[in-house]
Amino acid sequence: MSVSGNCEICVTGEVSHTCSRCAQMVCDEHFDEETGLCVECLSDVGGRGERQPENMPDGVDTYRF
Ligand SMILES: [Zn+2]
Ligand SMILES: [Zn+2]
After folding, report:
1. Which string of DSSP letters, residue by residue, matches 2-57?
2. Cα 25 to chain center, whole Å?
3. Is the confidence at residue 64, as pLDDT, over 60?
4. Ligand 2 centroid from CA 62, angstroms
5. Which value, in Å, is the radius of gyration of the alpha carbons in the chain?
6. Which of the ligands is closest to the CA of residue 44?
7. What is the DSSP code (8-state) at residue 61?
8. Distance 49 CA to ligand 1 centre (A)
9. Superkingdom of the source (predicted)?
10. Cys-Cys with 7: which of 14, 27, 50, 64 at CB 3.0–4.6 Å?
11. How far, in Å, is the centroid of ligand 1 from the Cα of 14?
12. What is the whole-number distance in angstroms between the Cα of residue 41 and the centre of ligand 1?
């Protein structure tokens, strides 16, 4: 068990980030810099890659000033 080294998700990538939620050490590919989360936490909290609920207000074709 090494302190640092390989990504805990893919086990092949070199660790370059630490998840701010689970403290898992992950490589660049399995880390989202925008949220500071690893991909596991990211999908857990419903980030990118997950389908978003279509509850957006329909203000797209309505321009009210
Ligand atoms: Zn990885
Ligand atoms: Zn995480």
Report:
1. -SSSB-TTTSSSBP-EE-TTT--EE-GGGEETTTTEEHHHHHHTT-TTSPPPS---
2. 13
3. yes
4. 39
5. 17
6. 2
7. S
8. 16
9. Archaea
10. 27
11. 7
12. 13
Cα 12 to ligand 1 centre (Å) = 6
Tokens coding 8:
């805990």
- Asked if 26 and 15 count as a contact pair (C-beta separation under 8 A), the reply is yes
pLDDT in tens, 24-58: 999 999 999 999 999 999 998 985 554 555 665 66
Half-sphere exposure of 42 (CA within 13 A, CB side): 19
> How far separated are the first and last CA of the chain, in Å rounded?
61
Strand bridging mode 25-26 / 17-18: antiparallel
Q: Which ligand is nearest to the CA of 10?
A: 1
